[in-house]
User: Fold this.
Amino acid sequence: MTTMTIAKAINEGLRATLANNPRTLLMGEDIGPLGGVYRVTDGLIREFGADRVVDTPLAESGIIGTAIGLALSGYRPVCEIQFDGFVFPGFNQITTQLAKMHSRSNGNLTVPVVIRIPYGGGIGSIEHHSESPEALFAHTAGLRIITPSNPHDAYWMIQQAVDCLDPVIVFEPKRRYWLKGDVDTDAPGRSADPFAAHVLRAGTEATVVAYGPLVPVALAAANAAAEDGHSIEVIDLRSISPIDFDTVTDSVRKTGRLIVAHEAPTFGGIGGEIAARVSERAFHSLEAPVIRVGGFHMPYPVAKVEEDYLPDIDRILEALERALSY
Amino acid sequence: MGATHLPSTEFDGLDVDDQLEAQAEAVLGAPDAPMVQLLSPEGTLGTDPVFSEYAARLDAAKLRGFYADMAKIRRFDVEATALQRQGQLALWVPLTGQEAAQIGSGRASQPQDYIFPTYREHGVALTRKVDLAELLRQFRGVSNGGWNPKDTNFHLYTLVLAAQTPHAVGYAMGIQRDQKLAAARAAAGGTGPERQAPKAAVMVYFGDGASSEGDVHESMVFASSYNAPVVFFCQNNHWAISVPTAVQTRIPLSNRAKGYGFPGIRVDGNDVIAVHAVTEWALERAREGKSPVLIEAFTYRVGAHTTADDPTKYRGSEEEAQWRAKDPLERLEKYLRAEGFADDAFFEQVRADGDELAAYVRKTTHDLETPDIRTAFANTYAEAHPLIAEELAWFEDYSAGFADEAGAGGSGNQADTDGAAS
Assistant:
C-alpha cells in the first residue's frame, strides 16, 4: 500500500502497462519530454523511448485515426487528448470508426484503443478547458467509458482499460489530479470489475450517485446530511458505459430515494438515463422522483462564475431535502 | 527539392538525407509534376527514365492477366449495376473507367502489404482475391462489411470519406514497430528468417473529393513525421459526385506531397502499365523505409458516382466522350494484339470468363442470407456487456411472444426481412 495522487497513480499504471506489454504505446501532444500538460506521462519517454511514448503532431483526428490503425495491426495505443473541449476534432474518428470497427467487421477485427481525456471544471481555466462531454460518447454503442475518482481506481482502471478488447475512453477528473489516496499495487485491485459501481458509504434514507470529480462532493454532502441525522448512501458509478444499474437499483430498493449528480448539463445527460432506468426497474420502491443535480443548459461558463455552475455540497443537500420531503 | 536553398527551419540541413533528396527529386521532376505515361491511348509503349525499368519486368502473361482482370471487373460492374436496377442491391458504386488505376496498383501490391480501400475499389479487391460476391453484402444490406480483412489484407470499405487514411498510417506505424520488435528478438538470440518481420507496406485509396477532407492532411503529416511505410493512392476521377476537381484543388493533387516532404507522382490512371510501374516503385520505396509516396492516378469515372445520381445533370457528354477515347482496356488490347501477346481466342476466353463471373455473382447475391439481428447484438462489443445482455434478453422474450403467430416452421423475426433492399 502506497500513497499517491491520481495523476501519479495514472502515471504508475501507464508505466506498469508499458513494462508488461511491448505492444502498448502512448500517443498524444506534448506527452514526451514535457510529460503532458498535467505531467501524467512524466518520465515515461525516458524509460520507454520515443517509439513507445509518441509525441504526435497537433491533430486529434490524426491521433485517434492512427491509433485505430495501430490497433488493427496488433498494438494497444493509449491516446491522450489534452482537454475535454479539444476532443471534437477527433469525434468523427471515435464515433464513426473506432466505435463501429468491431461490429462492421462482423466481429473479425478488434480495436483496443484507449483514449484518456482530462475533463470537468473547477480549475479556473478558460474556454474549452472545463467541459464534461461524456454523454456524447456514452450514446455511441461500441465504446466503453470509465472515470476513476480516486488514486487506487486510477491506477488499476487505466491498466484494465488497456487490457480490454473494446475501445475505452477514460475521463480523468482533472481537478482531482492532485487528490491523494492509498493505492494497493498488488493483485486485489486488478480483480475488481472496472465497469462495476462501488458503494462508498452505506445509508438508508436516500442514495446519491456520482462519478469522477463529484464523488468527493457527494461524500461531503452525505457527511453533512448525517450531521442533520440523515443516513445517505453514496455510490461511485466508476463506469458510464456500461452503467452498473444493478448496484444502483439495489441501493434504491433499500433507500427509496435517488439523487444523481454530475457536472455535465442535466439535459440529455447520464443522470436522465439513470433516472429513467431506475423508474423502469424499481418504480414501486421509489418514495420520491429521481432528482438530477448537474450543470445548466449552457456552454460551460467563464471561470469567474463557474462556482455558480458546478454542483456543490449545497446543491446536493438541496436535492436531498426535496427528495426527503416526499 | 526544387528551391533547395530555402531553409524550412533554422535547423535545415541537420538531418537531411542527401541521397533521399536526390532520389525524390529524380522522380518529382519539374515543379508541375508531369504525368507519367507509358502506354499511349493508341496502344504504343513509350519510355520513361525511371519507370521503363519497372515496365520491363512485365512479360506477356502478366500483361494478359492485367487485361483479364480489367475486363472481369468491368463485367462485374455491369452486373452489379443491373442488380441494383433490379432492386437486388440498395446502391451501387460503379468503377467503369478506373480499371487500370485499380488493377495496375492492386497487382503491384504483395500479399504481406495491407490495403485500405475507400468504397469503389472493386478492382483492387479482385487483385487481392476477395470474393466479389462478398463485396456485395454491404450493398445488399446484409452486412456493414462482408469479408474478413485478415484473409486477404484488404480492409473493409469505408464510407466516411478519408477516415481510412489515418488508419493506414497507423497500420504502417505498426509495421515499423513489428520490424523493431523482430530485430530486438533477433538480437536476443534468434537468427532464422522466421524472426524477421516481412517487409511490408500499406496502401490507402481515396478520391479527389476526399482529398479535401482534413483527415487526408492529418494522415500525410503523420506519415511524414514518422516516415511511415505508406503509399497514398488518390484516384482523381474528376468528380466528387457533382463537384469537379477544380473545386477541390488548384494544383495537381500529386504536387501536394511536396508540402509534406515526400514524393508525389501523377500517373496516367488509364495506363495500366504506368500505374503498375509507379505503384511498384512506391511500394518498394515504402517497404524499404525510404519515405511515404503520394500517387495521383489521373483517370475518369465514366458512369455515375453511385446509382443514386445522374451525371447528365452536372457534366457534358463531350467530356465523357473524350475520356472514352482513352479507355484503359482498348489501349491495352491494341498493344497486346500489336505485340502478338494475345489473339482472338484470348479475348473470347476473357469474355466468357466475365460472363461466368457475372452469373456466379448474380446467383450468389440472390442467395446471400439475411443475418439474424442477434449477430448485431453479438458484435457490438468484443467483450461481454451488460446492456447488450439485457436488451438481447428483452428481445428474446419479446420475439418468443410471436412464436404462435409465426407457426410451426418459423423463426419469426426473419420472415419479413428476406429479399431485396429498397
Remarks:
- Chain A touches chain B through 52 residues (CB under 8 Å).
- DSSP finds 13 helices and 14 strands in chain A.
